[in-house]
Design a protein that fits this description.
The protein contains eight helices and 16 strands. The longest helix has 14 residues.
Length: 287
Amino acid sequence: MPRIAYVNGRYVRHADAAVHILDRGFVFADAVYEVCQVQQGYIVDLSRHLDRLDRSLAEIRIRPPMPRAALIGILRQVLRRNLVTNGLVYLQVTRGVAKRDHVFPSPEVRPTLVVTAKSLAPVVNAARYASGVRAATVADNRWGRVDIKTVGLLPNVLARQQAKEAGAQEAIFVDAEGNVTEGGATNLWIVDRAGTLVTRPADHGILNGITRTTLMDVAAALGLAVEERRFSVAEMLEAREVFVTGATTICLPVVSIDGHTIANGHPGMTAQKIREAFFAVAEKTAI
């Protein structure tokens, strides 16, 4: 069965899906996106993802392509047409198609909406949870508004390639003061020596991840203390646990950073407890 995508009002074969060469998402990365996890036939944390989408659109002054109820209907249709019960659904909104000019089109053009979905076998993440992943630190050279979920991810691409060439699976951005910001495609957490969950405050220096936000609820349900503050690379390397969070991995242990073994080199119990409780606490929207 061929994969199906939604592009500007039409459901088309994935192989045939296309946008105009003057679409501003293609020309200027003038676009935002969201990725939602799909688990056991439910879209996870959909309301929070769509709230963040609305914020991202407002921050770069793109109008929503349609009312929320209609957008949810499209997400469901794409998932159903692709027979996805475990996997992800991706949506991207660009400013639209216009002649190449840096300023906004005038008059305003219709935003472009693309939605795709794919299945992911749970066993793939299960293997990574069991073994953990390696990470490499990189200088954070991104623009100052990484709190907006735009498609302008070239620094992230280069960071993750640098990590891959160092034998790692994730990059960890470090700011000019030597403090950790976040992962190349994740938020980053440590369990400090006192047993407290620590993550950087969700200011303009990081993306306020949806999984990160729900993890706060999970921690509260489990009675775990959480502190939002900056922490250094040195503190991270001495932590009891390090893990990264994101919609496609939930809570993934990091067992080595720059060749330095974290704790005993095995995934920790805190990450496991959070991951096991996550789905029960998260919002679930039936497909």
